[in-house]
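Sanity check

After download, print the first record. It should look like this:
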Amino acid sequence: MPETGPARSGEEPAGSSQKPAAGGQPPAANGDPGAGGEQPGVGPVGALFGKLGGEFLEATAERCVARIPVEGNTQPLGYLHGGATAALAETVASVGAWVASGGQPTFGIEIKINHMRSLRSGWITATALPLHVGRSTQVWEVRVHDDDGRLIAFSTCTLATRAPRPEP
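Expected structure tokens:
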């Protein structure tokens, strides 16, 4: 597969198969994941992902890839904050689950993460793959690597999939 750049305003990630949200319409992409909680070609990602400086590289039902910079996501000693890594892991699993469910609301119900290596600079990239996609639950495996391809963290994330609530 050819290497692709990050999803930015007006672009769609390579291999994206965005599915419609409740009501049959895909989410509106506004180009600012921090303001509207969506990223072009991906759908809902939430305001936290924007605050982390995150970028999606791919979002399909079979694989979801995103990255964040280490800079700005450190703990007081200057190392990558484990909470930022966990937030990235849950975000890629959640977006993958959302796509796999056809745009159904998805919610993280459990996340486990092992941190294996510390970092002070560069980017970390999370790749999420589904282990189980059911009607009401999904389990995704997430591997987080640094710029040199070294494994930084490993995570599993269990998500609940719900039918959309009717609009009032």
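If your output differs, re-run the checksum step. Summary of this record's structure: The radius of gyration is 15 Å.
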